[in-house]
C-alpha cells in the first residue's frame, strides 16, 4: 500500500515501474508523449529538409562545406554509449541494486555532458568559421532549430537524471521513484533515437550532397 | 455533500477551485471559462455582422475589423469550443467508464490553467496595442509583416494554451486505456467515451505540428530567424502545411466529441440501444485516421500541382463515407424508438440536417477544380459554420442541457431551453444559409465592407438579422442558467429517467470520490441493463474499502502563471533590442523570472513527495447513513 | 494498489529465475549495442567512401531504421508484454511523421 515501503532484492517486483497504478499510468502516458514527440521532431525534420541549403546568396556556406565526419562520429558514439549505460542502470534498478544504478546513471550523465560540450563547440565553430548563424539564412534557422531542439532535449534529460539522483541519493529505491527513473531512461533512449536520424539525415546525407 | 460546503466563505471556495485536482471541478472551471470566451467571441461575431449589415458601412474601421475577425475565429476555436468540450469530457468520461478518477489529476489541472492563462494572454492584446489581425490561420506571408505585437500575442497565447490541450489529451487517453471499471471492455464503452478517445489521439498528433509552426513564427518575429522570409531563402508554404496538418485534425477534434454527445442523446431519448454500435465505433476511428490525410484540401489554390490536388481531393471525399454511416445510424436509432422531445433531443434532431448540409458543401469544396471558384469566398464561410455551428455548437448546447443536472444537481428549465433552441436554430440557418449564395455570387471572405449595387445587400442583411436571433437565444440560455441556480431545485441520480450509461447511476453531482465501490459492468449501457432487471443500483465489483485520493495543489496555477509572465518578456525584448537597450530594459529579466517561476515550480513538484491521502472505509460508510447519496 | 508479487509458488526459484533472465537480457542488450556500433560504422564509412548518393541515401536510411528498431525493441523493451498501446501510438505517430516529411519533400512549392 505504502509507496515508501521498503523492499529487499527478493521482494522487489519484476516490473517495479508498472507495479502501482500510478506507475502504470505514468508509463503509458509517457509513451504516448513520445508518440507526440515523434511528430514534433518530424515537423522539424521536414522544415529542415525543405530549407536545407536555402541561403540568400552564393557566398553562404552550405551543408557540404561545413559538416565534418570526425566530430559527428565522436558525438554519435558518446550518445550511443550513454544509451547503453542507462540500460545498465535500469538493469540494476530491476535487480534492486541502488548503488550500481546510481553509478551507471552518473556515467550516463557524464557522457551526455560530453556530447553537449561537443555540440556547443560545433555550433561555435560554424558561427565563427562560416558565419552560419541562426539569423544568416533560412538554412541556418532551420539547422539550429532542429539540432538545437534535440540539444534542448539532452539538457532536459540530464537535468531530469540529476534531479532524481540528488533527490533520492539517501532514500534507495521504492515503488514511488522507480517509475521516475525508468521514464527518465526511456526519455534518454528516445533522445538517442532522434539523434540517429539527425546524424543520418542532417550530417551524413548532408555530406554526400 | 452536506450544507457545510455551501456555507464556506467565498475565499475558501475560490482557493478550492484554484487548487483543485478533481475532474468534476475542473470540468466546471472549463465550462465557466469556455463559456466566458464563447460570449466574448459572440460579441465579436455581432460586431462583424453589424459592420456587414448594410453596404459601405463604417461601424468599425478596416484595421479594427481585421482584428475582430481574427479574434473571433481564434477565440471560438481555441478558447470556446475546445474548452467547452473538455468541460463535458472531464465531467462525464471518468464516470462513464466507472473510474475513480482521471489518470493524472495534477496534469489535468495544469492543462486547464495553461489553457486559461494562454487565453487571457491572447485577449490582453486588446488592451496592449492591438489584437492579431492576420486571420485565425495567420498565414505567414501576412503575419510576419503585420506590425505591432498582435501576432506575437497570437503566437505566445496559443503556444501556452496549446500545451495545456496536449496535456489534457494525454490525460484522457491514459484514463480511458487504464482506468476502466471491471467489465468495461473497449466495445462496451459509451460513444462519448470513444469519441473522446479518438479526439484525444488526434490532439496528441495534431498539436505538435502546431507547436512547431508557432515556434517557427515566434523565432521569425521575435528572434530574427528566417523561416518565412523569402529573401533569406525562407518559404511561407511551410507555415500553411504545418498549420493545416494541425488544422484539419483540429476540426475533427471538435466534431467527434459532439458526435459522441449526440450519440448518447439519441439513444437515451429514443429509449433504444444505439443502432450499429460497432459500426459507429469503427466510423469514429476511421474518421480520426482519415482526418490526417486530407489537410491539403485547404491549399488547393496554392499551386501544389494536379497530382497532389487529386490525391487530397479523393481522400477528402472519402471522409464523407464514415460520416454518412454515422448519420444513418443516428436515424436508425430513432427509428421505432419511443422518442421524447426534450431540449437535448431537439438539438440532436436538428443537428442531423444542419450538419449534413455542411458535409455536402464540404464534398463540393473537395472537388479541387471547383474549389478554385469557392475558395476564400463566403461559400467556405457558410460551409464551416454549418459544420461547426450546426455540429459542434448544437452539440455543446445539447450537452449543456443534457449534462447540467449531472454537473450541478439542478435541471435547466425545459421551456426556456426550447425557446433558446428555436431561436438559435432559426437564427443559425438565417445567418449562414444565405452565405452560400453570397459566396457563389462572388463575395470574398474576410472583407471589411461591400459596396452597394452588387446584389449583396439583401442576403447580408438577412444574415445579420439571423445573428441577432442567435444572440437573443444565448441570452435566454444565460437567464435560464441563472434562474435555475437561484431556484436550486435538487434532482436525483437519473433526472432524465432514461439514463443508460454509468454516469446516471451515481448521485448528481457525484461525491468527490466518485463511485464508492467500482461498479461491475455487464454489457453495453450498463445502467440500463440493471434497470431492466429491476435493480436500482449497479452491482459493485469490490467491497467497500479505503479510497486513495490525490492532494490539491496550487503548483499548476503557478507553473502556468510563470509562462504567462515569461511571454510578456519574450514579446517586449523585441522592443528592447529595437531601442538598442534604451527602453524596455525589464523585458529580458521578466522573461527569465517567468521561466524561473515555471521551472522552479516544476522542481518543487518533482522534489516534494505527494502521495495523496486515503478516505477511510468507516468514513465512507458513515457518509452512507448521513448523506443524501 | 496491492503490489503484485512473484507469480511462482516458490519465491526462491522465481527469484533466481528472474535474476538469470535479467542477466541474459542484459547480454542481449550488449550484443545489440555492438550491432548498433557496427551499423553506425558502416554508415560513416559509406559516406567516407564517396559512393553515389542514389545508392548511399537509401542504404543510410535503412541502416538508421535498423538502428532505431534495435533501440525500440531492445533498449526500450517494446517487445515485452504490456506495450501494445504504446506501440500503437508510437507507430501512428511515425505514420503522421512520415507523411509530414514526405509532403515537405514534394509539395512545398519548389
Ligand atoms: C464531409 C466532411 C468535410 C469535407 C469534405 C470538408 C471539406 C472542406 C474543404 C475542401 C475546405 C476548404 C475550402 C476552401 O478553403 O476553399 C473546408 C474548409 C473548412 N472546413 Fe471542412 N470539410 C468537412 C467537414 C468539416 C468539419 C466536420 C468541420 C468542423 C467541425 C470543418 C471545418 C472547416 C473549416 C473551419 C474550414 C475553413 C478553414 C478556413 O479556411 O478558415 N469541415 N472543408
Ligand atoms: Cu479541412
UniProtKB/TrEMBL annotation, chain A:
One matching Pfam family: COX3
Keywords annotated in UniProt: Cell membrane, Membrane, Oxidoreductase, Transmembrane, Transmembrane helix
Gene Ontology CC, one term: plasma membrane
UniProt keyword annotation of Signal present: no
Transmembrane region(s): 28-51, 71-91, 103-123, 143-166, 186-206
InterPro entries the record matches: Cyt_c/ubiquinol_Oxase_su3, Cyt_c_oxidase-like_su3, Cyt_c_oxidase_su3-like_sf, Cyt_c_oxidase_su3_a-hlx, Ubiquinol_oxase_su3_dom
Matches recorded under Gene3D superfamilies: Cytochrome c oxidase, subunit III, four-helix bundle
Location (main, coarse): membrane
GO molecular function: cytochrome-c oxidase activity; oxidoreductase activity
The protein's Enzyme Commission number: 1.9.3.1
GO BP field: aerobic electron transport chain
Subcellular location as annotated: Cell membrane
Domain Heme-copper oxidase subunit III family profile: 1-207
EC category: oxidoreductase
Membrane disposition: Multi-pass membrane protein
Highest taxon of the lineage: Bacteria
Family, as annotated: Belongs to the cytochrome c oxidase subunit 3 family.
Protein name: Cytochrome B oxidoreductase
Organism encoding this protein: Jeotgalibacillus campisalis
Automatic annotation (TrEMBL), chain B:
Domain Cytochrome oxidase subunit I profile: 9-522
Localization per record: Cell membrane
Membrane topology, as annotated: Multi-pass membrane protein
A GO BP entry: oxidative phosphorylation
InterPro entries, per the entry: Cyt_c_oxase-like_su1_dom, Cyt_c_oxase-like_su1_sf, Cyt_C_Oxase_1, Cyt_c_Oxase_su1_BS, Cyt_c_oxidase_su1_bac
Chief place of localization: membrane
Domain of life where this protein originates: Bacteria
TM stretches of this protein: 27-48, 68-93, 105-128, 153-179, 191-218, 238-262, 274-296, 308-332, 344-366, 378-398, 419-438, 458-482, 554-572, 584-604
GO molecular function: cytochrome-c oxidase activity; heme binding; metal ion binding; oxidoreductase activity
Keyword Transmembrane helix appears in the UniProt entry: yes
Biological role stated in the UniProt entry: Cytochrome c oxidase is the component of the respiratory chain that catalyzes the reduction of oxygen to water. Subunits 1-3 form the functional core of the enzyme complex. CO I is the catalytic subunit of the enzyme. Electrons originating in cytochrome c are transferred via the copper A center of subunit 2 and heme A of subunit 1 to the bimetallic center formed by heme A3 and copper B.
Family that this chain belongs to: Belongs to the heme-copper respiratory oxidase family.
Name the record gives this protein: Cytochrome c oxidase subunit 1
Organism: Jeotgalibacillus campisalis
From TrEMBL, chain C:
Molecular function as annotated in GO: oxidoreductase activity
Protein's membrane topology: Multi-pass membrane protein
GO cellular component: plasma membrane
EC number(s) stated in the UniProt entry for this protein: 1.9.3.1
Transmembrane segment boundaries: 30-49, 55-76, 88-109
Keyword terms: Cell membrane, Membrane, Oxidoreductase, Transmembrane, Transmembrane helix
Pfam families linked to this entry: COX4_pro (PF03626)
Subcellular location: Cell membrane
UniProt key word Oxidoreductase: yes
Major localisation: membrane
Protein name, UniProt field: Cytochrome B6
Amino acid at each position: 500500500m505504502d509507496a515508501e515501503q521498503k523492499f529487499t532484492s527478493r521482494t522487489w517486483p519484476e516490473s517495479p515501474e508498472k507495479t502501482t497504478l500510478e506507475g502504470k499510468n505514468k508509463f503509458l502516458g509517457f509513451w504516448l508523449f513520445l508518440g507526440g514527440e515523434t511528430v514534433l521532431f518530424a515537423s522539424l525534420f521536414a522544415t529542415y529538409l525543405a530549407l536545407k541549403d536555402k541561403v540568400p546568396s552564393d557566398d553562404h556556406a552550405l551543408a557540404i562545406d561545413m559538416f565534418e565526419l570526425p566530430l559527428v562520429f565522436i558525438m554519435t558514439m558518446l550518445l550511443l554509449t550513454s544509451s547503453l549505460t542507462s540500460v545498465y542502470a535500469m538493469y540494476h534498478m530491476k535487480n534492486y541494486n541502488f548503488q550500481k544504478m546510481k553509478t551507471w546513471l552518473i556515467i550516463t550523465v557524464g557522457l551526455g555532458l560530453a556530447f553537449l560540450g561537443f555540440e556547443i563547440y560545433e555550433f561555435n565553430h560554424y558561427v565563427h568559421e562560416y558565419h552560419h548563424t541562426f539569423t544568416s539564412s533560412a538554412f541556418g534557422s532551420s539547422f539550429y532549430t532542429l539540432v538545437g531542439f534535440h540539444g534542448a532535449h539532452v539538457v532536459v534529460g540530464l537535468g531530469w537524471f540529476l534531479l532524481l539522483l540528488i533527490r533520492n541519493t539517501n532514500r534507495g529505491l521504492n515503488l514511488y521513484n522507480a517509475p521516475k527513473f525508468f521514464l527518465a531512461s526511456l526519455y534518454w533512449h528516445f533522445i538517442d533515437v532522434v539523434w540517429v536520424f539527425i546524424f543520418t539525415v542532417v550530417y551524413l546525407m548532408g555530406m554526400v550532397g | 455533500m452536506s450544507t457545510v460546503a455551501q456555507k464556506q466563505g467565498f475565499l475558501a471556495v475560490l482557493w478550492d477551485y484554484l487548487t483543485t485536482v478533481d475532474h468534476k471541478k475542473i470540468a466546471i472551471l472549463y465550462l465557466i471559462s469556455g463559456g466566458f470566451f464563447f460570449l466574448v467571441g459572440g460579441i465579436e461575431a455581432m460586431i462583424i455582422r453589424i459592420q456587414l449589415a448594410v453596404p459601405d458601412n463604417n461601424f468599425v474601421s478596416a484595421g479594427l475589423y481585421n482584428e475582430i475577425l481574427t479574434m473571433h475565429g481564434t477565440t471560438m476555436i481555441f478558447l470556446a469550443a475546445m474548452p467547452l468540450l473538455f468541460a463535458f469530457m472531464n465531467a462525464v468520461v471518468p464516470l462513464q467508464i466507472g473510474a475513480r478518477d482521471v489518470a493524472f489529476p495534477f496534469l489535468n489541472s495544469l492543462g486547464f490553467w495553461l489553457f486559461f492563462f494562454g487565453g487571457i494572454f491572447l485577449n490582453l492584446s486588446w488592451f496592449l496595442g492591438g489584437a492579431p489581425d492576420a486571420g485565425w490561420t495567420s498565414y505567414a506571408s501576412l503575419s510576419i509583416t503585420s506590425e505591432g505585437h498582435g501576432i506575437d500575442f497570437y503566437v505566445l497565447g496559443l503556444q501556452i494554451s496549446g500545451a495545456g490541450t496536449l496535456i489534457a489529451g494525454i490525460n484522457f487517453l491514459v484514463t480511458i486505456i487504464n482506468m476502466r471499471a471491471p467489465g468495461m471492455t473497449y466495445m462496451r464503452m459509451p460513444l462519448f467515451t470513444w469519441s473522446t478517445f479518438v479526439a484525444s489521439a488526434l490532439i496528441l498528433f495534431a498539436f505538435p505540428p502546431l507547436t512547431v509552426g508557432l515556434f517557427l513564427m515566434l523565432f521569425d518575429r521575435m528572434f530574427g530567424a528566417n523561416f518565412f522570409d523569402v529573401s533569406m531563402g525562407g518559404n511561407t508554404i511551410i507555415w500553411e502545411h504545418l498549420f493545416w496538418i494541425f488544422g484539419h485534425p483540429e476540426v475533427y477534434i471538435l466534431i467527434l466529441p459532439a458526435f459522441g454527445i449526440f450519440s448518447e442523446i439519441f439513444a437515451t431519448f429514443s429509449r433504444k440501444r444505439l443502432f450499429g454500435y460497432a459500426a459507429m465505433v469503427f466510423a469514429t476511428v476511421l474518421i480520426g485516421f482519415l482526418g490526417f490525410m486530407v489537410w491539403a484540401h485547404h491549399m488547393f489554390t496554392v499551386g501544389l500541382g494536379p497530382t497532389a490536388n487529386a490525391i487530397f481531393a479523393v481522400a477528402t471525399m472519402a471522409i464523407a463515407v464514415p460520416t454518412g454511416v454515422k448519420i444513418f445510424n443516428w436515424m436508425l436509432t430513432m427509428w421505432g424508438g419511443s422518442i421524447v422531445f426534450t431540449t437535448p433531443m431537439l438539438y440532436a434532431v436538428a443537428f442531423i440536417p444542419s450538419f449534413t448540409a455542411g458535409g455536402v458543401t464540404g464534398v463540393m469544396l473537395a472537388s479541387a477544380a471547383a474549389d478554385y471558384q469557392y475558395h476564400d469566398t463566403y461559400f467556405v464561410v457558410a460551409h464551416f459554420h454549418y459544420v461547426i455551428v450546426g455540429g459542434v455548437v448544437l452539440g455543446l448546447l445539447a450537452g449543456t442541457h443534457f449534462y447540467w443536472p449531472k454537473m450541478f444537481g439542478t435541471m435547466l428549465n425545459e421551456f426556456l431551453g426550447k425557446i433558446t433552441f428555436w431561436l438559435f436554430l432559426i437564427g443559425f440557418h438565417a445567418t449562414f444559409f444565405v452565405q452560400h449564395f453570397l459566396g457563389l455570387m462572388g463575395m470574398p471572405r474576410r472583407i471589411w465592407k461591400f459596396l452597394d449595387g452588387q446584389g449583396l445587400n439583401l442576403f447580408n442583411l438577412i444574415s445579420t438579422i439571423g445573428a441577432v436571433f442567435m444572440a437573443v437565444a444565448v441570452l435566454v440560455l444565460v437567464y435560464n442558467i441563472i434562474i435555475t441556480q437561484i431556484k436550486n431545485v435538487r434532482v436525483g441520480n437519473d433526472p432524465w429517467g432514461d439514463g443508460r450509461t454509468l454516469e446516471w447511476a451515481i448521485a448528481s453531482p457525484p461525491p468527490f470520490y466518485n463511485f464508492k465501490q467500482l461498479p461491475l459492468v455487464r454489457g453495453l449501457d450498463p445502467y440500463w441493463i440493471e434497470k431492466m432487471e429491476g435493480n436500482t443500483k449497479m452491482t459493485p465489483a469490490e467491497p467497500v474499502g479505503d479510497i486513495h485520493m490525490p492532494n490539491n495543489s496550487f503548483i499548476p496555477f503557478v507553473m502556468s502563471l510563470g509562462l504567462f509572465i515569461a511571454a510578456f518578456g519574450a514579446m517586449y525584448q523585441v522592443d528592447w533590442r529595437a531601442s538598442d537597450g534604451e527602453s524596455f530594459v525589464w523585458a529580458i529579466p521578466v522573461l527569465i523570472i517567468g521561466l524561473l517561476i515555471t521551472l522552479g515550480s516544476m522542481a518543487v513538484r518533482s522534489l516534494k513527495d505527494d502521495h495523496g491521502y486515503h478516505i477511510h472505509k468507516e468514513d465512507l460508510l458513515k457518509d452512507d447513513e448521513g448523506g443524501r447519496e | 494498489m496491492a503490489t503484485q508479487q512473484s507469480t511462482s509458488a516458490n519465491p526462491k526459484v522465481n527469484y533466481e529465475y528472474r535474476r538469470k533472465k535479467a542477466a541474459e537480457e542484459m547480454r542481449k542488450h550488449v550484443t545489440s549495442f555492438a550491432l548498433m556500433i557496427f551499423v553506425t560504422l558502416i554508415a560513416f564509412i559509406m559516406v567516407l567512401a564517396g559512393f553515389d548518393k542514389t545508392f548511399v541515401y537509401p542504404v543510410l536510411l535503412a541502416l538508421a531504421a535498423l538502428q532505431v528498431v534495435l533501440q525500440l525493441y531492445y533498449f526500450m523493451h517494446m517487445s515485452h508484454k504490456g506495450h501494445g498501446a504504446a506501440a500503437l501510438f508510437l507507430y501512428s505517430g511515425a505514420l503522421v511523421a512520415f507523411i509530414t516529411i514526405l509532403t515537405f519533400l514534394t509539395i512545398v512549392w519548389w
